[in-house]
Task: inverse folding
């Protein structure tokens, strides 16, 4: 018996089995949950600046084919401080950024599975509060629609569990008002860095 042939055959069988087990298939659902860091554009407006925030995020992905998928991003509301350009805190707000994206996974049979996506974001602001120099003034931020792009990767731990990392850019621009009077647009447009644990079923 040729030991080398036996070992090579066993190794090939193992790699094939792992690859098949880790493969994303049409009809699979992927659920990811973890944390994301939202880093807004530094020059938000000529008057105020919106600070960064970290929060809980999760998403659901449906594999339409082995490579093409649709993903819905959701999150627990992020809370951001709002400051004047000199650093004085004048308020805070919360926002929800649900985003629907079309993804392409170009290595669905690999343990390491990178993907890219593009989609549409809707951001709703709530719980606006003022403090410091603006305490008692009514702050209002309008909802936002914009495009979003992402790049990420899943690293399969076994047939069902995997780790995920992603980077997104989301176009978020809101109209700000103080006591009903416009103070212009606030261009938040953040980079979003996420780390998640995922499950496939």
Result:
């Amino acid at each position: 018996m040729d030991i080398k042939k036996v070992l090579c055959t066993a190794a090939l069988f193992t790699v094939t089995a792992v690859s098949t087990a880790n493969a994303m298939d049409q009809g699979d659902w992927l659920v990811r949950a973890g944390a994301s860091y939202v880093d807004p554009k530094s020059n938000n407006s000529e008057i105020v600046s919106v600070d960064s925030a970290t929060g809980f995020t999760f998403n659901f992905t449906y594999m339409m084919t082995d490579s093409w998928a649709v993903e819905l991003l959701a999150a627990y509301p992020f809370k951001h401080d709002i400051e004047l350009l000199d650093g004085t805190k004048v308020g805070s707000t919360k926002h929800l950024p649900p985003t629907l994206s079309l993804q392409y996974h170009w290595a669905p049979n690999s343990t390491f599975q990178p993907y890219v996506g593009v989609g549409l974001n809707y951001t709703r602001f709530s719980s606006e509060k003022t403090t410091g120099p603006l305490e008692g003034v009514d702050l209002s931020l309008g909802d936002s629609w914009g495009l979003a792009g992402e790049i990420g990767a899943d690293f399969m731990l076994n047939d069902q569990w995997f780790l995920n990392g992603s980077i997104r850019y989301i176009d978020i621009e809101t109209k700000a008002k103080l006591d009903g009077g416009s103070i212009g647009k606030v261009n938040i447009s953040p980079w979003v860095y996420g780390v998640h644990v995922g499950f496939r079923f």
Remarks:
- Residues 3-200 form a domain with the Porin fold (CATH 2.40.160.20).
